[in-house]
Amino acid sequence: MYRAYSNAESCEADRKTIASGVNSLDLMERAGNALFLKVVSAMEKIGADEALFVLGGGNNAGDGFVAARKLSERSVKVSALCLENRFSDDCKEMRSRYRGEILTSIPKKKFPLIVDCVFGTGLKRPPEGDYAELISFINGSGAYVISCDLPSGLTENGKAYSPCVVADETLSIGGMKSALLLREGADHAGIISVAEIGIAYGDRGAEIWEDTDVKGFFPKKKSCVNKGSFGKCSILSAGERIGAAMLSASAALRSGAGYTSLYVPEHLLPAVATALPSCVVERLQGADGAFLSSDALAVGMGFGATKELYSLLTRLLSDYRGTLVLDADALTVLARFGVQALKTKTCNVILTPHPKEFSRLCGLGVEEVLDNAVSLAQEFASRYGVTLILKNNRSIITDGKRTAINCTGSPALAKCGSGDVLAGFLAGTCARGISPFDTACTACYVFGRAGEFMEEKFGQYAPDSSDLVELLPRAVMSVSE
Predict the structure, then answer these.
(1) Beta strands of 9-143 (E only): which ranges?
(2) SS percent in the chain: helix, strand, coil, step 5
(3) What are 136-167's pLDDT values in tens digits?
(4) Who's near 222: CB < 8 A, 6+ residues apart?
(5) End-to-end alpha carbon distance in the chain
(6) Would you state the torsion angle of the CA atoms of residues 51, 52, 58, 63, taken in this order, to the nearest 10 degrees?
(7) Cα separation of 380 and 88, whole Å?
(8) Which percentage of the chain shows pLDDT scores above 70?
């Protein structure tokens, strides 16, 4: 596991590191040296003998001036392009130490490698004027591009302004920046690496899980076990769109849960039982709460966004004692009839909204949600005492105390039914006795890995969600062996 940090967390860690006695120029020297080593490595990789640094006037540019100086001291041909006339104090000092050429207009000459040091973290508005011209120059250069800390034009929430540098590599200074993972960050960052320069973050930052973190939740089974050893999960659906619930049940069957039950309307029992012979198929109406004995329940997939569903949810929230996974129509009725019902809960709750569903739950626009995704998710989870999975290309998982960003996945998952698969896998994983937050991190990770395998096998466009279900066992094996 490693961590990713917001702009505020990075600035606070910088401040505390400097307050502890580390000179800010020493930190910049370390950062610039790391960038220098990255540039040397890239030049060797692509066979370049010359580099151009494109610089602004802040501390990000100061790192660039350090790296450019170190290259020139080793007789590497290096140029610096800087149109700025105002500099931070530390950048001004490092600029004075650089003895190489400084260009004050955009060159017509082609360079094999360009180092982007125009902006660092904290960008709040689209680049304009000279800054926009510099970024457009970088993107149109045809050069191999390395960005320092963040591609210039990328905001701290991962939104890419226009223009925004599209880098081949990004070196994140002092720790992983969450902006590189969220929204469009990964599309602009290229290959991401981290330079540790002695900044102490403590326990701040979002958790980024890796295979070793997930492996512990799929331990080798002892020989003396039975299906009762691994919990029971149930999927509830009352609607005619039974395919969604069947996808969820199929995923739950592959989660490791001992029992998986699917509750459906009576007239659908024969068809569903035939299609899912490994699943216990039950009649929903008149079940008299038999599903309340399940360790985990998943509700909402293909259910129908009705008042009846909301009534069922309020009953479950007050009477159920396991873990309740709410997806799709369950999220819609909560937003429509009253999200305050969550405050009456006597059970653990996991919510799985995508940005539009979350915008309804919290009464904000989708763009506002995307611009403040981490903080809004944390605040909502804390307010209602739930575990929230805000689904996107990089899903944010939080219970208000711990936060994680899931980094497995593929654009192939952008297809109807994927969320149903995740909801079922969540319920089955949780039924095994894993805490809601750990369940969310584990299930999202495995689900994303299955998506990667799905792209590998079928490409980004051709697969459907049933292919995803079939690849879940391979994904589990990839992290547990």
Answers:
(1) 50-55, 77-82, 101-103, 113-117
(2) 45, 15, 35
(3) 999 999 999 999 999 999 999 999 999 999 99
(4) none
(5) 18
(6) 10
(7) 38
(8) 99
Distance CA(53)–CA(203), nearest Å, equals 34
Cis peptide before 270 (omega within 30 of 0): no
Alpha helices, H only, 348-435? 355-362, 366-371, 373-384, 418-431
How many other C-beta atoms can be found within 10 angstroms of the C-beta atom of residue 275?
16
Distance CA(366)–CA(344), nearest Å, equals 27
CA distance readout (Å), 41 to 46, 58, 194, 285: 9, 25, 14, 65
Tell me the pTM. 0.95
Report the C-alpha gap between 359 and 344 in whole angstroms: 22
pLDDT < 50 positions in the chain: none
Q: Which of 61, 117, 108, 57 is nearest to 87 (CA)?
A: 57
What's the pLDDT score for residue 427? 98
Q: How far is residue 232's CA from residue 432's CA, in Å, rounded to a whole number?
A: 8
Half-sphere exposure of 295 (CA within 13 A, CB side): 23
Rounded-to-integer distance, Cα 186 and Cα 166, Å: 10
The most distant pair of C-alpha atoms in the chain lies apart, rounded to whole Å, by 83
The answer to whether residues 453 and 474 touch, using CB atoms and an 8 Å cutoff, is yes
3-class DSSP state for residue 265? coil
Predicted pLDDT at 219 = 94
Q: What is the DSSP string of 43-58?
A: HHHHT--EEEEEE-SS
Q: Look at residue 173 and give its three-state secondary structure.
A: strand
Instruction: Please identify which residue in the block is written with the tokens 């890419």.
Output: 160
Q: For residues 406 and 395, is the Cβ–Cβ distance under 8 A?
A: yes
Q: What is d(CA 437, CA 395) in angstroms, rounded to the nearest whole number?
A: 13
Q: Strand pairing partners for 52?
A: 79, 114
pLDDT digits (tens, 9 = 90+) for 29-70: 999 999 999 999 999 999 999 999 999 999 999 999 999 999
The DSSP secondary structure of 204-228, one letter per residue, reads -SEEE--HHHHHTTSPPPPSS--GG
Q: Which two tokens stand for residue 37?
A: 């080593």
Instruction: Kindly give, in sequence order, each residue whose CB lies less than 8 Å from that of residue 404, ignoring residues fewer than 6 positions away.
Output: 206, 207, 208, 209, 396, 397, 398, 437, 440, 441
* Structure letter (DSSP) for residue 175: S
